[in-house]
Structures are given as structure tokens and as C-alpha cells.
Specification:
Length: 78
């Protein structure tokens, strides 16, 4: 299994995803806003929950993979 890298994170910017963390937790239905460089290899992913304007950051190394969500289904569910 490949690591979740900066290049793969860039492909999800502006899209709604579920973030699967390495500890088994899942952050559901968030929109990736951007990537911020930290000191050394401490890159951060900035995301905002669906329907919320406040953003949060998480270390890129804590993310195992991202699951792309279909926005058509999200709009029908609301």
C-alpha cells in the first residue's frame, strides 16, 4: 500500500473526501482546502467539514488514504 503523499493530496484539493487515518479513525465528509509546508517533513493538510466555514489542519503523515465522495449523492441527501 502506498503512502498518502503531497502529490496525491493535491489531486483532492477542492473536493469532498473521507480521510482515513493510520490509527483507524475516519474523518467523514470534509473538503480539502490546501497543503501547508511545515518544518522538515511535517506537512499539514487543511480541511473544512461539510457545511462549516471553519478550517482545521492535520499532519499529512497521519493520513493513510482519502476516499473521494460523489457530490451528486450529497446534494440529494440534504
Amino acid at each position: 500500500m502506498e503512502n498518502f503523499s503531497v502529490n496525491s493530496a493535491r489531486s483532492y484539493i477542492g473536493k469532498n473526501v473521507n480521510l482515513h487515518l493510520k490509527d483507524g479513525a475516519v474523518i467523514i465528509n470534509v473538503q480539502l482546502i490546501g497543503i501547508h509546508k511545515g518544518s522538515g517533513k511535517n506537512n499539514l493538510i487543511e480541511y473544512t467539514p461539510y457545511g462549516n466555514r471553519r478550517s482545521t489542519r492535520i499532519l499529512l503523515r497521519n493520513v493513510a488514504w482519502a476516499e473521494l465522495l460523489n457530490s451528486i449523492f450529497l446534494r440529494r441527501a440534504v
